Amino acid sequence: MAFKFPLKKITKNTNREVFKKVLIVRLPCNPIFPIGPIYLADHIHKCFPEIEQQFIDLAIVPSKNISKYLKRKIDQFRPHLLIFSWRDIQIYAPVDGRSGNPLQNSFEVFYSNNIFKKIRGAWGGLKLITSHYEEINRNTSLVKMGLKRAQKYNKSVKVILGGGAVSVFYEQLGKLLPKGTVISVGEGENLIEKIIKGDSISKERCYLAGQKPRNKLIHEQPSGTVKTACNYKYIKAIWAEFDWYIEGGDYYVGVQTKRGCPHNCCFCVYAVVEGKKVRVNPINEVIKEIKQLYEMGVRGFWFTDAQFIPTRNNIKDAKLLLQAIKDQGWNDIKWAAYIRADNIDRELAQLMVDTGMSYFEIGITSGSQELVRKMKLAYNLKTVLENCRMLVDAGFRNHVSVNYSFNVFDETPNTIKQTIAYHRELENIFGKGLVDPAIFFIGLQPHTLLEKYALENNILKPNYNPMSMMPWTARKLLWNPGPLGKKLGEVCLEAFENQDDEFGKTVINILERNYGKASLDDSLKVRKFSERKLSSAKL
Q1: Residue spans in the chain of domains classed CATH 3.30.750.200
Q2: What's phi and psi for 135, nearest 5 deg?
Q3: Contact at 8 Å (CB) between 269 and 306?
Q4: What is the tens place of the pLDDT at every residue in 154-188?
Q5: Residues 182-197, mean pLDDT to the nearest whole number
Q6: In the chain, which segments carry CATH 3.40.50?
Q7: What are the φ/ψ torsions at residue 76 (nearest 5 degrees)?
Q8: Quick one: pLDDT band at residue 107, thresholds 50, 70, 90?
Q9: pLDDT band at residue 500, thresholds of 50, 70 and 90?
Q10: CATH assignment of 21-209, given 3.30.70, 3.40.50, 2.70.98, 1.10.3470?
Q11: What are the start-end ranges of the E strands in 431-504?
């Protein structure tokens, strides 16, 4: 008997690589809970539970042992896919970075009249420059070494590099890495999922080292992914040193409640990296994640969102989340976040206090409403004050960090006086000892409106290197231009002499001594367009 069945041709993706083992490596940085790579490992496990993973955090490994530690892990695990996460590149930190204080060194060289301080600043700067390039060389060398070591066991091993530093400096880093390294910009879950499946990654925000990235790659909107609760039981199983961050009880552990930022702040790269669309994670999933950590003994949480309440439309989201936290009965936790304090109402203020908000940061940049508008920050400073009063009425008695960046566009002695008046009002509201001014000189970052302005006005050349620490570039990237530059540099130099480590408060006091204080009404008003002194900045 003849059986005639229609034969269906089965096609296989013969080019698909098989990734049975994935090693995720967080490159050395300040030891902050590594939420990004943890979320990647969790996503891979949910999509491909059959894949074996390990995670190592080189931030907590002594520097002299890093290379040997990574080699040993690769020898033991023999991965098919290596994923490196590079968190940051410290160039112009406003305070002590990993190798000293670049702001103090720069200002001693640029503005000090004391020859010995100039020499000290130059020497400190030289050490920082050396450290900066050594750090870049070390991390790129770890990627190269990791690839070469893994190829001893699997010739077709693939390498992916992502993280905050990569998203900002992806064009420069691509020239320093092995050809074929997948360089990921922004969030990487969908990209890695496609690579493991063998699907095309041509539409993802990435490119291969050795090739030229698409023009304005970072400005493409992320494809996005639905975020569910991280499985910390699994994370503990693949990360031997997990308890390092937990056992002391002094670390805030990161939890993400949303991604994206809709604002256009002229100097900030968050909205570019994460995209303009705010994507809120399901509240029940956030609660599940916090609950796991709570049961492990965690009591301090940092909401890692670009802004915890980015717009007034997100007030409801924040209320629902905090009410859900309150309903759990966790009355012994503390939490902190970046918060746009203009997006608070009385009910939310009470929930913030009731659920243990222990600290928050406000990035108003200036206490002059006119300058806030100029920088496209979209803050209403009067509303911020009103909402801060609501927080105090609700019982908030903890620290507030307020970020100020002097010598921004159109800064004058009058706007400095307005910032002093605004800061003193915040002290009146919260209590003088509880308001910590953080003094930043805006670092000119790639992909921002400030960079666009600098290029259009020939402050920077089109082919400049944003990773450069050379003095002729540093003076432009550490934004402190014009006639106020030297005066503000001298103020900071005087403040650095304060032995009580109260740099921010000392800067405010010296500025008030030198320039005085405006009325609060002057701080909160914006002059008619015809009366304003405008810079040529077209932002």
Answers
A1: 357-443+478-523
A2: -65, -45
A3: no
A4: 999 999 999 999 999 999 999 999 999 999 999 99
A5: 95
A6: 21-209
A7: -75, -40
A8: confident
A9: confident
A10: 3.40.50
A11: 435-439
The overall longest dimension of the chain from CA atoms, in Å, is: 105
- Boundaries of CATH 3.30.750.210 in the chain? 236-340
Name the band, by pLDDT with cuts 50, 70 and 90, for residue 94: very low
CA 406 vs CA 367, 390, 446, 480, 485: distances in Å: 10, 28, 20, 8, 9
Each residue of 349-378: pLDDT tens digit? 999 999 999 999 998 999 999 999 999 999
236-340 has which fold? Answer: Transcription Regulator spoIIAA (3.30.750)
Candidate from 81-90, 203-212, 426-435, 528-537 with smallest mean pLDDT: 528-537
Query: What is the per-residue pLDDT for 202?
Result: 93
Residue 12: the pLDDT is 41
Q: What is the fold, at CATH topology level, of the domain defined by 357-443+478-523?
A: Transcription Regulator spoIIAA (3.30.750)
Scored b (16 or more CB within 10 A) or e, 448-464 reads: bbbbebbeeeebbeeeb
Q: Rg for the chain (alpha carbons), in Å? A: 25
* Contact yes or no for 243/230 (Cβ under 8 A): no
Q: Provide long-range contacts, Cβ within 8 A and 24+ apart, for 236-244.
A: 238/41, 238/53, 238/54, 238/55, 239/38, 239/54, 239/55, 239/56, 239/57, 241/56, 241/57, 241/60, 244/57, 244/60
